[in-house]
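JOB MANIFEST
job_type = single_chain_structure
chain_count = 1
residues = 241
[input]
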Amino acid sequence: MLSDSKLEVALAQNRSHAVMAQRTEQKDSLDDFPTPPWATRGLLEHCIESPEKLSGLTCLEPAAGRGFMAETLKEYFAEVSSFDVFDYGYTEVSDFMTRPMGVNSYDWVITNPPFRLAEPFIEKSLSVARRGVAMLTRTVFLESIGRYERLFSVNPPAVVAQFTERVPMVKGRVDKKASTATGYAWLIWLKRDSEQKAPTNLIWVPPCRKSLEKDDDYIIPTDRKAYETMKKPQFDLFAAS
């Protein structure tokens, strides 16, 4: 039996983990938790079409924020369009929920949606995408009777790709040293499977952070040009020849 002091420590640990896992936001919050680029590469390298096929396709990122995901998508797709409801200084300001979008206007729609708007984001994306939709959500998004009745029972994802590693997300920034108790998964709809209501496949995103992480991943995309300039060798024009 645990002593009083050990019991207090255990309860405190449980409470701290629960708080970290909740990541609750106010109803009007922008839910600004940028995605580490390696987590986007994990989707593109391990979960959907081969990089060779993606190189000829188009993609929309409708919640682009500071551009961490959109810039990573540009490494794989022929063309990437993006916007965000708030002006983060990266891309066009526009609200995906109210913006007129053509049916089948992009091959893929890929984003980390605001948690409270994830369902309408998915529903609209399925109309916009020709080939598929991928949404990065907390694993607990799979829970809820209401969500099952409204979404999953009617249009289940073709693939649930659960991260085996934790994907640390910090409000307002990406942080290489951050940690988290929250689990994340990519939910992937393939249009051909959605039409046939194929069963959902559960797969795992293998450990890949070490192999997919790059030196400049944690620099805000709008600052990367200056970073690249600093990395280039500097030549003294007045040095003696």
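[summary]
DSSP finds nine helices and eight strands in the chain.
Residues 4-22 form the longest helix (19 residues).
exit_status = 0
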